[in-house]
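Got a spare moment? Tell me how you read both lines of this record:
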Amino acid sequence: MVELLPEIAQAKKLTPAERAARGKAARKQAPRSAHARWEAPADRPDPVGLLEEQGADRVLDLVPLRYARMLVSPGTFYRGGALLMATDLAGTPDSGLTAQLCGDSHLMNFGLYQSPERRLVFDINDFDETLPGPWEWDVKRLAVSFEIAARDHGYAASTRRSIVMHCVRAYREAMLEMAEKRAIDLWYTRLDADLIQNHLTSLGGKDAKRMAKDMSRAEMKHDLRALSRLTAEVEGKTRLRSDPPLLVPARELLAGDERARFTHAVEEALRNYRETLPKDRRAAYDLYRYRDMARKVVGVGSVGTRAWVLLFFGRDEGDPLFLQAKQAQASVLERFVGRSRFRNSGRRVVEGQRLMQAVGDILLGWYSVTGFDGRPYDFYVRQLWDGKGSFNVGAMTEGAWHTYAMMCSWVLARAHARSGDRIAIAAYLGVGDIFDRAVADFADAYAEQNQSDYDALREAVDSGRVTAQSGS
């Protein structure tokens, strides 16, 4: 029996008019103005306790680094607090309309990468928490991230609200646009280099030049550059260099018979990973030979999860391939919307990414391996440096913030439209700004909550409850 996503299965049974009516009816379940409300419930869990709970299942010597990175600013704290916000969003109104969620759609989880056609595209680029759920959760997390970033930037309340309103309006208008598209056209819709350049041209000035430079930097971030940055000659062979704690070769983490056991585990993992690739992609992967592996610290919220860089060579030493194997745990959303239908969390990430991204990594796959402690660990695999980059939001002026917010919201709407009922969601949102204003109010209130939680972590470090320690 063919398995359909719930919203797609529902939409197939209805006419466009019936789908629109369903969306408008959802306003009774969750009035658009109701999304403005945020007030912490009396029984709200201790935010530091939730972070400690996550840390218990991570590489323990990296957890202090995670806290240190979260304490850089309220914005970095927010990036690491996906579980905290998911816990809070579970108690907020939702329309009953669902889509595949990013699950952690803050503004720094959007960026540039190379398509298989070797064209830069802008899209969501982090799917560690992806799961089907209320589409509003992604919109609210994105909107709040702009409010917090604008606060970190020192903008006045009126400017912050203008940016957040622009963000939410761009999502609503993009969803209205997606609702009118032919189904097949939706799957060809992307924000590629040409469209990005059009936005930059209209922006003009220093911002346009700076963002164009960011795009050029992304194009230069490829395997040959990684070869010069991440490797060194060790005993006459090119291997991953040592830069603890941020990059630590496996040879430095293992001793004695652990090395043989580890080598066997890597061979098993790569065999399992290969089986998850489409057959034509296996042919490309098979042209490369595995050489080395190192543990790498990545991101903010992900610090402490197991992440590896794998070095391969193809034709010769001038033909490198770098893959990243990143541990996939249960999504922070699962305790609120139900478990993933995929038993392997790595597969959950990969399937969600394939569903939401306009174009994807040709070597995206997953595997599971048994650790030395006898426990199974799930991983997903992707290319490490493949034109990946981001825009320097910290250097943007107000006008560029509006442009960047529009870009993020547009690709988020397009991603939701591929798995959710875009006609129903568009009808729920409507052509007025009721939803925009409500989410802007929510963003302002929740930014205060984020500040309070940030302060709680700071107090926990000061009191010695938890340890924060920066890496070198």
Q: What stands out?
A: DSSP finds 20 helices and 13 strands in the chain. The longest strand covers residues 289-296. The chain has two domains: 6-219+392-463, 223-383. The radius of gyration is 22 Å.
